[in-house]
Amino acid sequence: MAVILGQFMEFHPVHGTNVRLDNSGTKATRVASFANGICFSKHPLNPGEIFLVEIEDKELGWCGHLRIGLTARDPGTLVTVPEYSLPDLVDLGDSWVFAITRNHNKVIEQEAHEHAGQAAEMRAADGGTERESMSRTFFTDTHLYIDNVCIPKDKLVGRSRPGRFSHILDDLYKTNILPPTARRSRIGVVYVPKGQSIADMHIVINGEDMGACVKGIPTDRPVYAVVDVFAATKCVRIVQVDYGFASLQTLCRKTIQKHIVHRMALDWLELPELLKHFCKFD
């Protein structure tokens, strides 16, 4: 049976002692100190399904930022949630966590570059048509491809807060100019199947794949997402990703945004306030 992607993402009720979740279970805030901020996904992830969060707030004075990864440990079975994801949770075993930094998050693999070059040469030798190339470019523009995994790009890049220059900032965000640790930055984790019962963990930052930061993760057990709201990262919220057919809410948002020049113009439209808020921020 094919896996259906697009489950509604929430945080697990089991989390670090300094974490407070909102009523929807999609927003996590660290209310004290700089540690004890570990959160988990409420349900296991499916292969190729991204768990995406946006940094909503930061707290100055701390050294370090958001940490994200995967665990094969059921959060509900933990007697106590570790104080830190690195190294405490990882030291328990069956957990893989990546520390996000302002720079140098991308994993560079020489073999990957060589393989991509060889693949391009083979396509050229086979006489790939111009139409095939255009088709590939079209789908690449709207989706992020990681091996055999396809993720819609629509929600992978954050948006600026509504203001006079938000339309300019939104275009800049799409060029990945936003630092990974900044407010409005969107960071996700996904595991990509590589064989029978193994996968690679990839981190996606503002729409760009950072590469396979962990290889050979066993997937014969349920795998949960891990988000450590650590140090300078104060608050994160889950961003829901639409796979396949978009929801009616998303279609309404896209239609409205298509016909306005600036998001501040939403204030003059006779729309429900909740819909205005959704169009402004999502």
**C-alpha geometry:** globular
CATH superfamily of the largest domain: SPRY domain
CATH topology of the largest domain: Jelly Rolls
| Percentage of residues in strands | 25-35%
Order of helices and strands: EEEEEHEHHEEHEEEEEHH
Approximate helicity band:
10-25%
CATH architecture of the largest domain: Sandwich
Broad structural category = alpha+beta
Instruction: Give the tally of structural domains.
Output: 2
Distance between the termini: 32 Å
What's the CATH class label of the largest domain? Mainly Beta
Determine the mean pLDDT.
Answer: 84
Element layout with pairings:
Elements: E1 19-21, E2 27-30, E3 38-40, E4 51-58, E5 67-71, H1 85-91, E6 95-99, H2 110-125, H3 130-142, E7 143-146, E8 149-152, H4 166-173, E9 186-195, E10 198-205, E11 208-218, E12 224-228, E13 233-239, H5 248-258, H6 273-281
Antiparallel strand pairs: 1-2, 2-13, 3-12, 4-9, 4-13, 5-6, 5-12, 7-8, 9-10, 10-11
Pathway: Protein modification; protein ubiquitination
GO molecular function, one term: ubiquitin protein ligase activity
Protein name: Neuralized E3 ubiquitin protein ligase 2
